[in-house]
Amino acid sequence: MNIENAQVQMRKGILEFCILHVISRGEVYASDMLDELTSARIMVVEGTLYPLLTRLKNAGLLDYKWVESSSGPPRKYYVLTDDGKQFLTAMQETWLDLADSVQTIIRKTNDAIQTQKTS
């Protein structure tokens, strides 16, 4: 099994959750999302982001508005809908439960390793 592939799959699994979080703070332009995700070391490219944004919009979780730009064409800014806010809240609860469960398993593994070392 390839570790890099496994890491990419883990990141993809939480990408939607992270995007919704970024948008939840207010109107956001797609390139600003890309910058934030990249700086958080969640690598994503435009070819991944835009289809995901379209899917989230089609699901009724996002909306957007066009804003004129003084330096080029109008920009599309994304916002969460009320359904999107509720969806994010449910995902947040799931994430916290999942993170706690994973930490429990990791802690038990680390404890077992420590016990083996001292035996």
TrEMBL record:
Residues covered by the Transcription regulator PadR N-terminal domain: 19-89
Q: Which SUPFAM superfamilies match?
A: Winged helix' DNA-binding domain
Pfam families listed in its UniProt record: PadR (PF03551)
Alphabetical list of PANTHER family matching this protein: PADR-FAMILY TRANSCRIPTIONAL REGULATOR, TRANSCRIPTIONAL REGULATOR RV3488
Q: What is this protein called?
A: PadR family transcriptional regulator
Organism per entry: Arundinibacter roseus
Q: What is the lineage of its organism?
A: Bacteria, Pseudomonadati, Bacteroidota, Cytophagia, Cytophagales
